[in-house]
Amino acid sequence: MTITVNGQKHQVTSSPDTPLLYVLRDELGLRGPKFGCGLAQCGACSVIIDNSSTRSCVLPVSVVTTPVTTLEGLGTPERPHPVQRAFIEEQALQCGYCTSGMIISCAALLEAHPRPTDAQIEDALDGNLCRCGVHTRIVRALKRVAGLSA
Prior knowledge:
Blueprint: E1 2-5, E2 8-11, H1 20-27, E3 46-49, E4 52-55, E5 68-69, H2 71-74, H3 82-89, H4 99-112, H5 118-125, H6 135-146
Antiparallel strand pairs: 1-2, 3-4, 3-5
Helix pairs in contact: 3-6, 4-5, 4-6
């Protein structure tokens, strides 16, 4: 199988029923998506597929037919994505485990809705769990990028 991740084509040797998360981490060496719950309930494994935040821990690699974007594909340390920059400026992380999934969900939301409503923000982040409790900073970061007041 061949999949496109962060703009590059990759030949995948995993079994077709292997979750995309394992392919991203084990075959491609990407560390942005994390294993959290394995049930698509926490958001730590989120990637962007078809402009939507998608849980990679339950998605068989065989059904991936369109490009995948991980945290590593959004920006670089030298040129971070606006959401990544806003997370840094708002200090929207503590332990950092949920951060990749949160950033992915925010980036996908802003792509679909550049000036999201509070309801759209709540809906987009609803499936992302943060045990450290920095949700208010995450929302501030997202609103900063959208040019909305927090």
